[in-house]
């Protein structure tokens, strides 16, 4: 059996399209029944490409870590907005592993690499994110990583009200050591 190893780096400017494609495929695989079928069955890649192209046009204040396989193909990414909130700290805005590569430790390592880098560029700040309430696998993943539930809200960007839960890490120390 061959073991695939992954490299963890900051995203390059040219990664926007590959990130958008992985993001779209991950939503289509994991958000069925959460986001509208009409949206998920549409051109999600185009919608995400527009978003990521705009994001990568000005990357100031953000940190995007990618995992690549031996051939340089994207296996996952973690995108953070530094010092997003005075109380909660840096926002981990997106974390996605290619659907066929889930459960191999890539997600945990992306979080660890992100936390380690944040320890340098945003020391002493916490980390938080919003996870969809119905996304139970991701909520278990974050709970296993030491995240604590800290409030609720509703995400309504796509024409439906999606309940979301805030997960918070007051310290990055334990996260930075996990999976590395
Ligand atoms: C959530 C996600 C990022 C996790 O990444 P992953 O690579 O699949 O997870 P890992 O293999 O790194 O798992 C790390 C640990 O969490 C545990 N874990 C992962 N998924 C789990 C689940 N569904 N239930 C319980 N534990 C889980 C693993 O057992 C592992 O624990 P261990 O290190 O003690 O063995 C990934 O599954 C994903 O992209 N999901 C779809 C998109 C999504 O929901 N993103 C989050 C949006 S907020």
Radius of gyration: 16 Å
Total domains: 1
Ligand names: coenzyme A
Distance between the termini: 23 Å
The CATH superfamily is identified as Gcn5-related N-acetyltransferase (GNAT)
Number of strands: 7
Oligomerization state? single chain
Per DSSP, the total helix count is 6
CATH architecture assignment: 3-Layer(aba) Sandwich
Q: Quick one: overall form?
A: globular
CATH class: Alpha Beta
Strand content: 25-35%
The description of the largest β-sheet is:
7 strands, mixed
Q: Helix fraction?
A: 25-40%
**Neighbour order of strands in the largest sheet:** 1-2-3-4-5-7-6
What series of H and E elements makes up the topology? EHHHEEEHEHEEH
User: Structural class from helices and strands?
Assistant: alpha+beta
Q: Kindly identify the CATH topology.
A: Aminopeptidase
* Parts with pLDDT < 50 across at least 5 consecutive residues: none
The pLDDT mean sits at: 95
What does the model show?
By secondary structure, the chain is of the alpha+beta class. The chain has one domain: Aminopeptidase. The protein contains six helices and seven strands. It has helices at residues 16-30, 37-40, 44-57, 106-121, 136-144, 173-177, and strands at 7-10, 62-68, 74-85, 89-97, 127-132, 148-155, 162-169. A seven-stranded mixed beta sheet has the order 1-2-3-4-5-7-6, with helices on both faces. The longest helix has 16 residues, at 106-121. The protein is globular. Bound molecules: coenzyme A.
């Amino acid at each position: 059996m061959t073991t695939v190893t992954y490299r963890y780096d900051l995203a390059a400017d040219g990664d926007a399209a590959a990130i958008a494609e992985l993001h779209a495929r991950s939503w289509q695989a994991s958000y069925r029944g959460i986001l509208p079928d009409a949206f998920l069955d549409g051109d999600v890649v185009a919608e995400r490409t527009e978003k990521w192209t705009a994001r990568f046009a000005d990357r100031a204040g953000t940190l995007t870590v990618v995992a690549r396989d031996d051939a340089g193909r994207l296996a996952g990414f973690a995108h953070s907005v530094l010092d997003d909130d005075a109380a909660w700290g840096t926002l981990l805005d997106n974390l996605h592993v290619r659907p066929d590569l889930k459960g191999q430790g890539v997600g945990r390592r992306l979080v660890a690499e992100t936390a380690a880098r944040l320890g340098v560029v945003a020391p002493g700040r916490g980390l938080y994110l919003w996870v969809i309430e119905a996304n139970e696998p991701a909520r278990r993943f974050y709970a296993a990583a030491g995240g604590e539930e800290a409030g609720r809200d509703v995400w309504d960007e796509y024409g439906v009200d999606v309940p979301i839960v805030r997960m918070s890490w007051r310290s990055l120390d334990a996260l930075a050591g996990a999976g590395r």
